[in-house]
Recover the amino acids of this structure.
């Protein structure tokens, strides 16, 4: 009888120990499980064969720039701004002034950690990398790039791909004053003095000289650009100019392609299109 009682007691102690060990292993009812969100892959906002100019290779690694003065910023990015002007019609002076202002000539916190030189927020449809930064509100989502030149290209795509900026492209691309005011009217920035700040930068640093892109770009650059444009023409990509009443869906039906293909070929993140916008509707490799 004593042996049976001893065995029962020993078995009870063993089971109790197992239960205690299980509670320690799996935690209490109040414990929390933290799951880290997967990091999104950066979206390429350029095409090496787009006939414009070669962009840096997207290695997937963050590249930071150390720029020490306003003039150094201008020297670094004026050529990029001119090439974007030639490709998309946005005054180089406006692009440079916005870059200077929004990035704090490349030394601002947002520019340093995201290579975002134009303060472009994530917005609906953005599928690229991002980071959070305090702006109009605390912890807002901003686009993140692997190189500042991607930011310059995305700035061009951002303005040309949204209907609210369409009226700007009816202006002369050397009329920086009306462009500056038009950006504010279209809602690019909430700062009431945004146009005056852009105009002041343009005039103080004579950025308007870069609006004469054809005269300023070197002969080597011209030759390379011409050669690339000829290559694109040889590819026989078809381009459609958006008219009033068009939708991305109606254009896709007219050319027997999918909406997804149109967005991919034109580096679009939403279905928004604007009158006068040029869309690639067929590529050489499309069957």
């Amino acid at each position: 009888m004593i042996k049976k009682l001893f065995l029962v007691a020993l078995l009870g102690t063993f089971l109790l120990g197992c239960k205690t060990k299980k509670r320690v292993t799996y935690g209490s009812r109040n414990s929390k499980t933290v799951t880290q969100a997967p990091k999104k892959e950066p979206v390429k906002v350029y095409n090496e064969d787009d006939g414009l100019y070669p962009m840096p290779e997207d290695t997937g690694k963050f590249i930071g720039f150390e720029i020490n003065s306003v003039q150094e910023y201008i020297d670094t990015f004026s050529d990029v701004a001119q090439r974007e002007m030639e490709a998309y019609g946005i005054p180089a002076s406006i692009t440079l002034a916005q870059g200077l202002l929004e990035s704090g000539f490349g030394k601002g916190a947002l520019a340093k950690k995201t290579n975002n030189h134009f303060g472009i927020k994530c917005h609906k449809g953005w599928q690229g990398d991002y980071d959070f930064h305090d702006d109009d509100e605390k912890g807002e989502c901003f686009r993140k790039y692997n190189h500042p030149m991607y930011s310059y290209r995305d700035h061009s795509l951002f303005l040309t791909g949204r209907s609210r900026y369409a009226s700007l492209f009816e202006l002369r691309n050397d009329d920086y004053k009306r462009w500056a005011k038009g950006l504010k009217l279209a809602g690019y920035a909430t700062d009431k003095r945004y146009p005056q700040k852009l105009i002041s930068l343009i005039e103080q640093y004579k950025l308007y000289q870069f609006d004469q892109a054809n005269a300023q770009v070197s002969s080597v650059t011209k030759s390379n650009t011409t050669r690339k444009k000829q290559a694109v023409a040889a590819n026989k990509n078809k381009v459609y100019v958006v008219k009033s009443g068009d939708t991305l869906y109606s254009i896709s039906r007219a050319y027997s392609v999918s909406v997804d293909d149109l967005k991919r070929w034109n580096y679009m993140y939403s279905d928004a299109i604007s009158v006068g916008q040029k869309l690639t509707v067929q590529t050489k490799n499309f069957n």
Remarks:
- Residues 236-287 form a domain with the Membrane-bound Lytic Murein Transglycosylase D; Chain A fold (CATH 3.10.350.10).
